[in-house]
Write a structure and sequence with these properties.
- This protein is 83% helix and 0% strand.
- The chain contains five helices and no strands.
- The chain is mostly helical.
C-alpha cells in the first residue's frame, strides 16, 4: 500500500506522526477512549495513559498502567 511505501521512505517518524494525528483527531472530538486505544496499539503506553486521564477515563488509564508496568 501507499502507507507501507511512505513508511519505508520516510521511516518511523512518518508512522508516529500518523498515529499522533489520528489520536489527536479523536481526542479533539472528545473520544478519548479511541484516542487512547490508538496510542496503545502503537505501543505508546505513556501517551495512552495521558490521553485517558485527560478524558477522565481512569479505569482505562489504570489498566494501561498495569500492562505497562508488567511489560
Amino acid at each position: 500500500t501507499m502507507d507501507d511505501v511512505a513508511t519505508r521512505v520516510l521511516g518511523d517518524k512518518y508512522q508516529t506522526g500518523k498515529v499522533e494525528r489520528q489520536a489527536a483527531a479523536h481526542a479533539k472530538a472528545g473520544n478519548y477512549m479511541e484516542a487512547g486505544r490508538i496510542y496503545e496499539e502503537a505501543g505508546m503506553s505513556q501517551q495512552a495513559i495521558d490521553t485517558y486521564l485527560k478524558g477522565e477515563e481512569y479505569m482505562a488509564a489504570a489498566f494501561t498502567l498495569g500492562i505497562a508496568t508488567l511489560a
